[in-house]
Amino acid sequence: MARPFRKIAPSVGLGLALALAPAAAFAQDLATWNQERVTQYAGELSTACHALYDELVALPSGAQIKREPYFQAREDVRSMNAAARHLASALESGEDRESTDPTFRRIQTLRRDAEESGRQALIPAAVMSKVGPVGVALLKLRPYYQAESAGE
């Protein structure tokens, strides 16, 4: 059995190296502001936040959750959804990093608040599956804002 593994291991390593190489190149590209790309990612964030909010609101009234933290999480996500729509709209109208940075920072704060409330509320897995796309969109946006605010 060790022999087949030895033949596969180098190709797995090569595959990982090839898969990670474009990601590294992509990450380097993120340090420079790209209005078109940032606007696209903000649109993805807005769509993902809306889907998450819809899923939270659609929870049946008999769901096994802790009600107080659930309502706090729902309010945080509602606010995050509104802020994400605003961010996407501002970027579509041509606003730059400096003018949209406060909104992005607010979204990050709301995300952290919603995460904590959601954890306390014991939100069902079906709803939590909608959290992933929000996180992915934020990860795509973050380097544009952090790189610029770091003085680059």
Structural commentary:
It is elongated and about 45 Å long. The protein has two domains: 1-30; 33-149, Butyryl-CoA Dehydrogenase, subunit A, domain 3 (Up-down Bundle), CATH 1.20.140. It is mainly α. The protein has helices at residues 2-29, 35-57, 67-92, 97-121, 125-128, 131-149.
Topology:
Blueprint: H1 2-29, H2 35-57, H3 67-92, H4 97-121, H5 125-128, H6 131-149
Helix pairs in contact: 2-3, 2-6, 3-4, 4-6
Query: How many beta strands in the DSSP annotation?
Result: 0
Please count the helical segments: 6
Low-confidence segments, ≥5 residues, pLDDT <50?
A: 1-30, 148-152
Named CATH topology of the largest domain? Butyryl-CoA Dehydrogenase, subunit A, domain 3
Largest sheet geometry = none
> SSE order in H/E notation?
HHHHHH
CATH class term of the largest domain = Mainly Alpha
Helix content: over 70%
| Rg, Å, rounded | 19 Å
The general outline is elongated
Mean pLDDT: 80
Our count of domains comes out at 2
Structural class: mainly alpha
Strand content: under 5%
| Level-2 CATH architecture of the largest domain | Up-down Bundle
How far apart, in Å, are the first and last alpha carbons?
Answer: 51 Å
